[in-house]
Amino acid sequence: MSREFSPGKAQTTHPDLNILQSVALGLTDIVKRQRDALGRLGPGLPQAALDQFLSALNDTEGALPRWREVIERLKVEWAAQQREREEVRALYEVGQVVNSTLDLATVLNQVMDHIIQLTGAERGFLMLRDEESGELEFKVARNMDRETLSGSSFEISLTIVNNVAQDGQPIVTTNAQADPRFATQESVVAYSLRSILCVPLRVRDKVTGVIYADNRIRTGLFTERDRDLLAAFANQAATAIANAQLYERVSAMKTLMDNVFASITSGVITTDVADKITLFNRAAESILDVPAYDAAGRFYRGVLPLDERFGRVVEGVKQSDRAIVGYEVTPRLPRRGLVNLSLSVSPLRDEQATTLGVAIVLEDQTEKKLLEAKRDILRRVLPPAVFDSLPDNPDEWKLGGERREVTVLFGDIRNFTSYAEKLPPEQLITALNQYLAIGANAVLEEDGTLDKFMGDMVMAFFNAPVSQPDHALRAIRVALSMQKAIVDFNRNQSEEEKLWFGVGINSGMAVVGRIGTEGRLDYTAVGDVVNYGKRLQENARGGQILLSQAAFNLVSNSVVVNALDPIQVKHRVAVEPVYELLGLK
């Protein structure tokens, strides 16, 4: 406001009234001077002229009191009108100010400053009802110098405050010390309270708080007109405070939701009814490689790299009010290349079921798809038991092994080198795969661990990673199955195309586990038992199966063998017994 104003006291007088008052005073002075002049000149004037002039002076002098009375009445009426205009203007300006911001603290301080200004109070307090407890809480306290109060300044009449809060009726007292309603209240007596004005803050017929103003020195400061004025102001203030509180809650909720949307790994995009983007969270920025400031306000079709069918999907969701889950697309992004996205679309509607737009949730499946592809390849490379033993998290595929008894089997295709010289590469690969498949299938049928293919040789072992008490017997059945399958296969081959496996089987202790480097690892068996098994295979003819003494000892009651002359294998000094497997008993 441009100047201070105290209700009930006129701030100015209309200029015309001032002129009239000056004229009346001037006329009074003129009449007095003329009478004085007549007193000096009277004896020399004609009697008739003197009587006429004196009559005119008497009429003028008699009219002056009435003029002054009219002028005074006009001044009072003008002051009342001026006061009403000032009050209306004050309320308007207060409404403009308190509704110009949605910051709660600013609104509360402005409300209290205007209360002090409107009422001329010494102190002003504003209390709001806590929504959970229902108790009144001090929110702001100010004095006539617009300073925030604290400490002992909070000595007020809580009785009056509670009465207003409970009844919803304003209270004014010109002298609380002498007012029979409050004179006996301890706070009124102890704090020397005199002029008190208290009005409720009301929103939708509900008392949400109280405005309290007082003066501890002056009596008769507040009138019923002040009460009505403050009550009218309180109605505006209550609405402004409620709006600020609502904005504060909405802002807090929005901040919470923004934090939630920013923290989740799924991309979240919302649109309005015109298909313009209203929300574009951090994950959406990362997935689509588009900054949020470039996406906000744009049509989603210009931002999301989607096919035409997806636009029809969105329209269907908006019209049917049914969500679509798991719509998969594989767009190519400028910097990320080909990506796999899974999209879910849900309608956004208000409480009246009015369509507000849609919510689109993006799931980046690119890494998952790549991992699944790699695991699929790994599944085909590794034995099922080994693959199933791997942790789900690749980071846990650590190096290391354990000592355990195993039976190893080596099967090598005899004369394959000379055979390979006669075939073109493409035909050679086809033939090799056919023979290796015979060996691999036989191993897998007995739940063996297919370790590796080394050229035209198959290596397998048993009793790891899954325990198999009959591991040696399983290796025996695999070898016999391989030889039988080769016989069946060769029935359809020419003599020069017929090939045979030479097989060696050994049992003993080995270290079994994931061996290699962090970048390249194999699940394999390592130890002398492996080396000797390979040497036995090297000594086997095509179609022949050789068993070590250790392997034979484990299956001696189940197999038919032919004991051969002891042999000395490559890189070993000892001459060791060896058995040719003929079949099962």
Give a summary of the structure in a few sentences.
By secondary structure, this protein is of the alpha+beta class. It is built from 17 helices and 20 strands.
Which keywords apply here?
five-stranded antiparallel beta sheet; 45% helix; 17 helices; 585 residues; alpha+beta; 25% strand; elongated
Structural overview:
The chain is an alpha+beta fold and 585 residues long. It has helices at 15-41, 47-98, 104-119, 158-167, 186-190, 224-263, 282-288, 292-295, 300-303, 308-320, 366-381, 384-389, 416-420, 425-445, 471-490, 528-539, 549-555, and strands at residues 123-129, 136-143, 171-173, 195-203, 206-215, 267-271, 277-280, 324-329, 332-333, 337-338, 341-349, 355-364, 400-413, 449-454, 457-462, 501-516, 521-526, 545-548, 559-567, 576-584. Strands 13, 14, 15, 16, 17, 18, 19 and 20 form an 8-stranded mixed β-sheet that branches. A 5-stranded antiparallel β-sheet has the order 2-1-5-4-3, sandwiched between helices. The chain has a 5-stranded antiparallel β-sheet with strand order 7-6-12-11-8. Helix 2 packs parallel to helix 6, helix 3 (104-119) packs antiparallel against helix 6 and helix 14 runs antiparallel to helix 15.
What's the arrangement of secondary structure elements?
Layout lengths: L14 H27 L5 H52 L5 H16 L3 E7 L6 E8 L14 H10 L3 E3 L12 H5 L4 E9 L2 E10 L8 H40 L3 E5 L5 E4 L1 H7 L3 H4 L4 H4 L4 H13 L3 E6 L2 E2 L3 E2 L2 E9 L5 E10 L1 H16 L2 H6 L10 E14 L2 H5 L4 H21 L3 E6 L2 E6 L8 H20 L10 E16 L4 E6 L1 H12 L5 E4 H7 L3 E9 L8 E9 L1
Parallel strand pairs: 16-18
Antiparallel strand pairs: 1-2, 1-5, 3-4, 4-5, 6-7, 6-12, 8-11, 9-10, 11-12, 13-15, 13-16, 14-15, 16-17, 18-20, 19-20
Helix pairs in contact: 1-2, 2-3, 2-6, 3-6, 14-15
